[in-house]
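Sequence, please.
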């Protein structure tokens, strides 16, 4: 996996894959409306805590839980 996106970024994700912007998989989390299309290596640009966790743990269950808690509707604001 090289990137993640929420429901509102599906069109951007499809275009990025079709244009070859990402060589790997883009995971779409349809329940996360506010999550923009972002590469995993650049995820700190949308949330500092996520960036720190990815650097420490790689993509893991813990990182995914932080992603869910941060971007779910009614979740905390982006940092």
């Amino acid at each position: 996996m090289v990137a993640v996106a929420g429901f509102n970024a599906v069109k951007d994700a499809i275009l990025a894959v079709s244009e070859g912007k990402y060589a790997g998989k883009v995971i779409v989390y349809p329940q996360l409306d506010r999550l923009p299309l972002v590469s995993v290596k650049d995820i700190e640009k949308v949330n500092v805590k996520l960036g720190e966790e990815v650097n420490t743990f790689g993509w893991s269950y813990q990182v995914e839980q932080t992603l869910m808690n941060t971007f779910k509707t009614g979740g905390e604001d982006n940092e």
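Residues 17 and 42 are 17 Å apart (CA to CA).
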